[in-house]
Amino acid sequence: MLKKLAERTGLKAVCLAGGVAFNCVANGKIFDATPFEQVYVHPATGDGGLAVGAAYYVWHQKLGKPRSFVMDHAYWGPGYSREEIRRAIGSKGLAESGYSIAELGEEDLSRLAAAIIADGKILGWFQGRAEWGPRALGNRSIVADPRRAEMKEILNRRIKHREIFRPFAPSILREATAEYFEKSHASPFMTLAYCVRPEKRDKIPAPTHVDGTGRLQTVTRDANPRYHALISAFRELTGVPVVLNTSFNDSEPIVCRPEEAIDCFLRTQMDALVLGDFLISRS
Length: 283
Hints:
The protein has a nine-stranded mixed β-sheet with strand order 3-11-10-4-5-9-6-8-7, with helices on both faces. It has a two-stranded parallel sheet with strand order 1-2. It folds into two domains: about 1-60, no CATH class; about 80-280, DHBP synthase. Helices cover about 30% and strands about 20% of the residues. It has about 280 residues and is α/β, with parallel strands linked by helices.
């Protein structure tokens, strides 16, 4: 269908929508199998994104308004202030229960969180506004070390409790994509799967699927500065510009509020939790 579309239009860019556009394996093959050179897939490309399509159809096609907005990130959900997070921590009685709680500056937060991951521990990462769509993209994520082949099994046993064949995603610094993957086209919404370069597969075995591919998320400083800083700090420690990313949940919808993140942390075997500027660790 895409080949025919390219022949009819002569265009080099295509935008995909509908639930079928979440087939990241098929999406990743578009560059090799068709003349298209750019692919855009909306982060909520299923039913959740229909309202945006309807609104923009009216705005551009019916009213003739010029194009201006580009959705280059998915962080459109609820966000919570430092005081709201502080109250949530207090309401759960974490300090009284023996948990270590530290409020940190930007640099220390990234450095300490990266060290936790590099040490093989599992980190809950709760920042900013929630993602719109089914993918956790660094604001409501569980993050772990991609270098450890056993990490996928550990995550499933301790937290996720899901089918063993389901892969976890590599979040990679946008500027390092070509170093680790055979394609370098941006994939900010985790909707494309590329082959991991053969010489890099033993560097990031945990998020590399059995067929040698990874459903990657490319992370930029502009779209998500704090997640970019975390991955950059991990690279400084390990030489690897990738972290394993999976959604912040356990057999339920992805957490949205700070209280939900704390509840998930407490009932699972997560080692540490970052809530905004706060680092919470088990004693």
